[in-house]
Amino acid sequence: MSDPIIYDDPFRLRVQKALAAAIGSVSITGGYHFDLAGKVFRGRDLFGDASDPLPMVSILEPPLPIDQLRSPPLASESSGDWDLLLQGFVKDDPENPTDPAHLLMADVKRRLAVEKARLIPGSAGMSDPFGMGRGQIVNGKAVNSITELKIGPGVVRPPELGVSTKAFFWLGLSMKIVEDISQPFL
């Protein structure tokens, strides 16, 4: 049995980086409506600077985590849903302000569906969402892995005073994860 791989970043940060890379691969040449290379951010919730690119997407965590199944007394694994919120901003159309936001959300959903399909056994060897792998086996158990993706329906909003000067969308993404809280760098 080989030694486990130790990464520079903890599991959840690796997932967010891989998610950002997947969304950042959305391109017009790939058949999408937008180019998102260099326009996907992690943990950013303040926007509006003149230098902010449009379109753009931010990956956020909700302020309070949902409950996970706690580790048994002598184990360090926990499992459950990890919810993220994707927020996308676009230059709105003067006549139909939310139309571009619907297109951007559809592009992001379509790209997430590609990653979700990686969970299906027998799908040409693509059985790992975001290229994260199935998790390392530690003490006979797979740890630090994503076992399921759930893509929410999303909501699109027009520019709104005190909220955003641009049309935008919110899209929930829930991942069922198994993690070893004592070894987050595996």
Outline:
The chain has 186 residues and is α+β, with helices and mostly antiparallel strands. It contains two helices and eight strands, in the order αβββαβββββ.
Taken as a percent bin, the fraction of beta residues is 25-35%
Oligomer: single chain
Anisotropy-based shape = elongated
User: Overall pLDDT, averaged?
Assistant: 86
**CATH topology label:** STM4215-like
Find the CATH superfamily.
Answer: Phage tail protein-like
Derived structural class: alpha+beta
End-to-end gap: 15 Å
Instruction: Quickly count the helices.
Output: 2
Largest sheet: 6 strands, mixed
Q: Indicate the radius of gyration in whole angstroms.
A: 18 Å
Counted beta strands: 8
The CATH architecture can be given as: 2-Layer Sandwich
Task: Describe the protein.
- The protein is α+β, with helices and mostly antiparallel strands and about 190 residues long.
- The chain has one domain (about 10-65, about 75-180): STM4215-like (2-Layer Sandwich).
- It has two helices and eight strands.
- The strands form two sheets. Strands 1, 2, 3, 6, 7 and 8 form a six-stranded mixed beta sheet that branches. Strands 4-5 form a two-stranded antiparallel sheet.
- The radius of gyration is 18 Å and the shape is elongated.
- The two termini are about 15 Å apart.
- The model has no long low-confidence stretch (mean pLDDT about 85).
